[in-house]
Design brief:
Length: 156
């Protein structure tokens, strides 16, 4: 019996070693597959980067033309705005002087009117006439307005 037990033990040990060897080989295969997948993904990414670089290089002249055109548009717009600002500032002093002169003339005119006590151009702001108070309510016929009835056709 001892021989059978040893044989069973040896078979169990051999089975365990075979399973361990199988598990190591399976793990090695998985690791190798993972490395291959990572390498393939890296190659794909590099290819995409190279393609994007080639596309950028291919479109570089048109991109440069567009950038120069946009720069010219911006510069033109800036120049137009500066010109408008210069025009406004150039006429600003003349307009201020004209307004100042008009204000001085108006001030002198008002001052001379006050000295002459000439207020004929003014009209009263407050009405000095007293309005008639209604102490008694008036009857409908005494309002002073004629009460004519308007005859309208009947509604259908």
């Amino acid at each position: 019996m001892e021989a059978v037990a040893r044989q069973r033990e040896a078979e169990a040990l051999a089975r365990a070693e075979a399973e361990a060897d199988f598990a190591r080989k399976a793990a090695a295969r998985r690791a190798a597959a993972s490395r291959r997948a990572m390498r393939w993904a890296q190659l794909q990414e590099e290819e995409l980067e190279i393609l994007a670089h080639l596309r950028r290089e291919e479109h570089k002249p048109s991109n440069l033309r567009y950038a120069k055109s946009a720069s010219r548009r911006v510069e033109g717009e800036r120049a137009r705005r500066e010109e408008v600002a210069r025009d406004v500032l150039a006429t600003l002093h003349a307009e201020q002087a004209a307004r100042r002169e008009a204000a001085l003339q108006k001030g002198q005119e008002l001052q001379s009117r006050c000295q002459e006590s000439n207020f004929s151009h003014c009209k009263a702001v407050v009405v000095s006439r007293r309005l008639r108070k209604r102490s008694e309510p008036q009857a409908p016929g005494q309002s002073g307005q004629s009460e004519e009835r308007i005859h309208l056709p009947p509604l259908v």
